[in-house]
Structure formats: structure tokens, C-alpha cells
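Weekly puzzle thread! Below is a chain. First person to post its structure in C-alpha cell form gets bragging rights.
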Amino acid sequence: MDARAVQDILNMDHSQVIAEGEAAEGPDLGAENLEVNKTLRLSLVMAQAIEEEAKRRGVKPSVLMRGWIEDGLRQSAERPANLSVPLDDLLRAVQQLARPAA
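Winning reply:
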């Protein structure tokens, strides 16, 4: 990104984004390469579990969480839009029904 593109972004009217929560028209800077920060509140227990899992895998926690989000989005996109029961719940129910009664 060159200095002119950065200046264009800084000079944009961001009131539409703030007011409507949607992206305002701006210069096309290759959105697939842009990164934004998002804040996420986690319980202390969850944050610690993420830190431990990231350490176990040898990656940063942000890399681990980004991967989980990408996987979730991909799985969500592969599900039919009219599916009213989450597939994981349905599979769990079928597995329980398939177990022989004791």
C-alpha cells in the first residue's frame, strides 16, 4: 500500500461506518489482504485454555483462534441455509440412537 492509499483512507468520511455499522465506500486496496483488529471478551478459564493449546501447538494464540474461526466459517458455509438443527447436534443424536441398549 502506497502513501497515497493510506492518506485516502485517513481522509475518508467514516461517519457512515460509525452510524450504520457498514463499510463506507472507499478505495479498493485489495480487501483480502487487509487485516482488522477485533476485541473479544473471554473468561479467564477460556483464555488460559487457549494459551495452553497454542503453546502445545507451538503457535501464537491469535493464530490458533484465527484458524478456529476460519474452520467454523468454512463449515458454516458448507451447511444448507435452511438447516434448523446444527449438524453436530444431529450427528450426536444419531450416534446416541445407534448405540446398543444395555
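Puzzle host: Confirmed. Bonus trivia for everyone else. The CA atoms of residues 37 and 62 lie 11 Å apart.
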